[in-house]
Amino acid sequence: MFFSRRKHGRHAAPRVSPFTNCSDPQERMRFRPRLEALEDRTVPSSLPFWFHTPPGPATHLQVIAPTNARADISARVAVVALDASNRVATGYTGTVHLETSDLGATLPTTDYTFTARDRGVHTFQVTFGTPGSQTVMANDTVDATITGVATATVSPAPVATHFQVVGQTSVATGQLSSVTVIALDDSNHVVPNYTGTVSFANTDGAAAALPDYTFTADDKGRHKFQVTFNTVGPQTLTVTDTASATVTGTTTVTVNPPAVASRLVFFSSSRARPGQAFTVYVAALDASNHLVQTYGGTVHFATSDPAATGVVLPPDYTFTAADHGVKAFSVTLATSGTQTLTITDNSATPLTATASVRVSALQFFQGLNAADIGHLEKMSRK
């Protein structure tokens, strides 16, 4: 009769997983049973439940490779140091060297020395290059008898057959918007190894042309682009691989007339103290309280602070496309007490915002709730 140390042993060794930091849940699920099997070594039940023999020195390695890998896509390979009883040798600090039968594979460029933090388990990134059955071998660089091997079945590299183009379905003319291009295979899976070059075609003749772009390995099959539409109505953006015209994708966007600013709002993001500069955010909103990213008005600052010196107001400022409708300014007031700060746009449709500022005490300005503030702060950092 046997029982598991992990379930019954008071001093059972801690569970070890080389994929603790793995962001891919499917990869964790695929390797977990094989790793847990290493932890469920059994001992005779006739021994006292508190009995535990520490693992011995490493005598061999176990290599855990994905059973189904894809060429040209990085895969995780775990190397586990085991003792003579096939228990994880948590004290192993040897140096291992990886080899593979795949002549087109990419392996770690340097040998790896296990540390105490590894507790006998470490993962490596391996990119296979040749479809078929391939082996991965790990060897201790000092003791040639400490070795292990695993076999992986490598499928051909995925091939992009079309693009998915994802973006906003409705924008205003002149508004900067984001479009993400994703390379997909015939099963609609992302092709992370896609490195082709794409060109853009836009039915909006007034829009600025996007230059060709070559995907990189860091893109992992997807890349974001910035586009501005300038013609009202439905517009279509088409993305095509320059080497294969059949690899293409489109998105249709409804372009609306430009939003019109109906009011200005502003708030302070710091305490206002005499002689101390604080930040004021100014934003242009439409009648629905949406940020008008295309606002290009000129604003003027004024204050009731009577001090002849010490008051510093921003000069008149004309918003640009890069502001996206929100801008941060620095203001300094000199006189303690309640002062007013006024911002005015003297265009054909005058816009004015006025608020009271209690100098030396924090007071948020009018017009914005917490969600508005967070959004405007984000927009101002673009």
Count of individual helical segments:
3
What is the level-2 CATH architecture name of the largest domain? Sandwich
CATH topology of the largest domain: Immunoglobulin-like
Which structural class matches the secondary elements?
Answer: mainly beta
Q: Describe the strand arrangement of the main beta sheet, using strand numbers.
A: 4-10-9-6-7
Query: What is the percentage of strand-forming residues?
Result: 35-45%
SSE string, helices as H and strands as E:
EHHEEEEEEEEEEEEEEEEEEEEEEEEH
Mean pLDDT across the residues is 83
Oligomer: single chain
Q: Termini separation (Å)? A: 67 Å
CATH class of the largest domain: Mainly Beta
Q: Count the beta strands.
A: 25
Number of domain modules: 3
Radius of gyration: 32 Å
Instruction: Summarize the main sheet.
Output: 5 strands, mixed
Helix residue percentage: under 10%
The fourth-level CATH homologous superfamily of the largest domain is Immunoglobulins
Shape: elongated
Low-confidence spans: pLDDT under 50, at least 5 residues?
Answer: 1-23, 39-47, 361-369
